[in-house]
Design brief:
By secondary structure, the chain is of the alpha+beta class. Helix content is 42%, strand content 12%. The chain has eleven helices and seven strands. It has a three-stranded mixed beta sheet with strand order 5-7-6. The longest helix is centred in the last third of the chain and has 16 residues. It is globular.
């Protein structure tokens, strides 16, 4: 229970509803009924799903009513939640993909722990050297998750969908070339073929656990995992 305001005695009872996907599915099941929550935290890619449900009130209404100043918030973040110059939700936090790596494993493989890989090819090369120095450890892991695929496309200057990733209009086709899309899958396949890739599928928690157990030396995941890794990693 989180008390918002002692004077008005308004309180919020926070109830965990599972993953973002699970929470969004549950919301649509009860939306428009007395069982629907007053507020819900939804991931950014659920924005249009929430708008199209017809069961949310745009935050813009409250921004306008209270003349709330949004200029103090980071522009690129708030624009993600703005559709046709209207805010539909209040930006709460923003995650970014980062690569976590085991400095001890780098040192053991003869790699510079202060100079981690910066390209797809460098990750492949480092993974190969790490696996060679320690056959019990894989070099790299990547969660099979669309958000990370989108970020890897962005590194190539590509979009996931056309129409500015659906920002300017409803997308009608993919926004990347066949070569750009296949390059990511071929990159992963190369490491799988060389047995340097740790495949945790869609389970991000298992991937973090694998890193903490020193089964894999590098992995790409949301910055939201940083606290868990920092607090629990028995390594540098």
């Amino acid at each position: 229970m989180i008390t918002i305001n002692h004077r008005t005695k308004i309180q919020v009872n926070a109830e965990y509803q599972g993953t973002y996907d699970e929470a969004l599915t549950k919301f649509h099941t009860v939306a428009g009924t007395d069982s629907a929550p007053t507020m819900i935290q939804v991931f950014e890619i659920g924005t249009m799903s929430m708008i199209n449900s017809g069961h949310i009130e745009p935050i813009q209404n409250y921004v306008d009513k209270d003349d709330y100043d949004m200029t103090g918030l980071e522009e690129n973040i708030i624009n993600y939640y703005k559709i046709e110059d209207k805010f539909y939700s209040m930006p709460f936090n923003s995650s970014t993909p980062v690569m976590y790596y085991n400095k001890d494993a780098f040192e053991a493989a003869g790699l510079d722990p202060e100079n981690p890989p910066a390209t797809f090819e460098e990750i492949e090369d480092a993974s190969r050297k790490i696996a060679e120095s320690n056959p019990e450890m894989k070099g790299f892991a990547l969660q099979a998750y669309g958000w990370l695929f989108e970020q890897l496309l962005a590194n190539q200057g590509a979009l996931l969908m056309n129409k500015d990733n659906g920002r300017s209009d409803t997308p009608t086709e993919i926004g990347f070339t066949e070569e750009q899309g296949k390059s990511i899958f071929n990159w992963v396949k190369n490491m799988i073929d060389e047995e340097t890739f740790a495949n945790y599928g869609t389970n991000g928690d298992n991937m973090v656990s694998g890193f903490l157990a020193e089964d894999v030396a590098m992995f790409m995941q949301s910055s939201a995992s940083a606290r868990d890794v920092i607090d629990n990693a028995p390594l540098k």
